[in-house]
Amino acid sequence: MNYATGPIVACSTCLQGNAGLAVLRLSGFESLDSLQSFFDKSVSKLLPRKQIHLNLLSNNDEVLDDVLVTFFPAPFSFTGENVLEISLHGNIVHVERIIAFIVKKFGFSRAQPGEFTYRAFKNGKLNLSQVEGLDLLLSADSNFLFEQGLSQLNGELYLKYHQLYKSLLEFTASVELSIDFSDDVGEEQIKKLQLKHLSKIHTDISQLEKRCLTPIGSLLEPSIVLYGLPNAGKSTVFNYLVAEERSIVSSIEGTTRDFISESILLDLGRVRLIDTAGLRDSVDDIEQEGIKRSH
């Protein structure tokens, strides 16, 4: 994906519907002076990380909106560049016209998905594991995944890799010690030291391997399968839980021939609920295929 090299702008809050407030984020501009004509107050009043109330102005100095503005100077911002956050009224039509105005008048580009995070990574504000943690945190459908993403964003995974790196350095040092000073330290003492470091390396790698082998897809949306004999009430329970008549219910055994799935939100997060064909001996080819899929 080709990202812009100049200043970018995007709405960092949800645009699926109108809201009381929306937050625009501008990044990569050279200085606040270049945006002076956009404000009814001097940019000298925009102190770092201090919110200020002002009006946004059009080309004719008409008021576009009254807003709250916060300035984050480089390199002390999310992206490592000059960043301006504007809290404005959250009507999506209004937000879109403000973005269009910024793009046209000040030469900004509309940020593509992930572009702010890319700049944060490029400028050393986030490492790769933190970027992955941020993505997990923002897309999490459960408390567990949100906490995992938050932990990773806070550098927990990075620290684990750093610990492995430290363990490898300590083992390397013990090998060099055995070469240069084995007579002084003693072979038995050096061997114990090396085994200690190797054990630590094995533990670090095992923990990282276990984490990598976790089926993240099943954690994002685990499946609950309704599985059993025909006419046991699987489809009735399924319809009740999804609050919709998604599965056909009748007194005839084998009514459900294929599996039907629906995503539902429970207290701990989103799950995929699946209604399946009832299990029995059948001579019907289609029902046999449905039972195969149930298994």
Short note summarizing the structure:
With 295 residues, the protein is α+β, with helices and mostly antiparallel strands.
What descriptors fit this protein?
43% helix; three-stranded mixed sheet; 295 residues; alpha+beta; 9 strands
What's the SSE blueprint?
Blueprint (H helix, E strand, L loop, with lengths): L7 E4 L7 E9 L24 E6 L5 E10 L10 E8 L1 H15 L2 E2 L4 H8 L5 H12 L3 H11 L2 H30 L1 H26 L3 H5 L2 E4 L7 H9 L17 E7 L2 E7 L9 H10 L1
Q: What would you say this structure looks like, in words?
A:
Helix content is 43%, strand content 19%. It is an alpha+beta fold and 295 residues long. The strands form two sheets. The protein has a six-stranded mixed beta sheet with strand order 3-4-5-2-1-6, covered by helices on one side. Strand 8 (260-266) and strand 9 form a beta hairpin. The longest helix is centred in the middle third of the chain and has 30 residues, at 156-185. It is flat, with a radius of gyration of 29 Å. The two termini are 41 Å apart. The model has no long low-confidence stretch (mean pLDDT 84).
